[in-house]
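Bug #77: duplicate submission created two jobs. Keeping one. Sequence:
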Amino acid sequence: MSADVSVNPSAAPGEAIGGQGRSAGRAMRPEDDRDRGDRLTVAAGRNWSRGARRVLHGLARTLTAPIRAYLSLRRSMTVASVSVLLALFMTLNVIWGFPWNGMMGAAVGLLVVGFAINRIMCPRLKMSVSLPRSAVAGQPFSVNVRLTNARMLPALNLRVGWHREGVRDIVPRRSVTAWDASPPVSLDLLRSGDQMQWHGAMRFHDRGVHVLPDFQVASTFPFFLFHCRRGMAADTQIAITPAPARDDDDSTTRALLAAIGDWAQQLVAGAPVEYVGNREYEVGIPVRRWDFASWARLGRPIVREYQSPSIQAVTLIVDTSQRPIDDRSASRAQLKQRKLEAEALFERLMSVTATAIVEITSRRVQLNLCLTHETVGELPTRSLAQPTEDVERMLVRLAAATPVDPLVGEERLREAIQSIRSQPTLIFSMLDLGDQERAGLAGTLPGHVTYMRIRPPKRKGHDAQSGDADDR
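Kept job's structure:
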């Protein structure tokens, strides 16, 4: 016999622990009995509803068992099993009036034994995935999948990969995927405890934070009669960053990128420089001036380093504000077209921002990135003493960007401009300063803030306009 004693530190000095201690410290009241009865009633009701759900779930699985068995058998059949099934129909020998019992028994036995062995030998593997933290939309990235056979039985006639082969959904749209990957590979034998690695490439077409699809493992043992497929959840996410905008996309993009390049060039053009120290020369680094005295004293090439103290950091604010789609008096086709145009404009904003990040950071200027879909507490404010955020991390933040309401975006724009004080600032937005949503911001922008509107590409037949920047 044993007894467990527990001490509750939060109990009062004169109060015992447990139901008996509480009843001994004070007299029982009728309200206590009623409260206890209510709690018991609620608990009984929850237990009854939980039991009823289990019974209904079991009944539904029992009723749908034949359908699920048929679908499982249909999806696991191969060319070999279909051929054996056709041979089984031929053994009925309808023309002569009596079946061929020997061939019929062989066909039935082959199908039954093959299906049973296929299910018994179905592989159970452990998986680990290694991949980069981020990738560019539309560009492939390498993926390494390591599989370990965790069963005592060997895995035979394996086919592993991301694509689910041999299965076609009834609804065609379900077969359309937002990704593409290298084709599956075959493996004849994977012994118990052994490991195998799948090296390949994958590509996502759209920006965002995507969850990797299930990794498909299929076995066709024995005799390639049936497929035993298992989808292994990767439980891994990857940030797909926007594809950078290019000069050859359209005339509007070309003019916008030229304006961004001019703005970045003005930051460092004619900036005074000051001496900050010496360092040993390395192949590939730019050299302003050699330090011959230190070179002769130390016996190895030494260069002097200079930096521009006038520009400490710049801020790029991406206004993700977007008007809600007006669905009044619009047909389904028009509403779908408006949604596609809104999504295309937002992705254009992300692409231009990605290009601006690369352009500005290549000038050796510290860049602070602010996104209006993030809360005010997440808006970074850095000085020269703090390390700048790496480019990949900023692109990952772009991958998770979402549209916000214009009023929320204007409020966060004001707070961001006040927090950065006198730093050179560039704002990207899909709204014009003359719009109603930005009327209150138009006359209050400081002189160090440059406002650029991201416009949709010009259609054919319209003249391209080059004035996309508003300096305020």
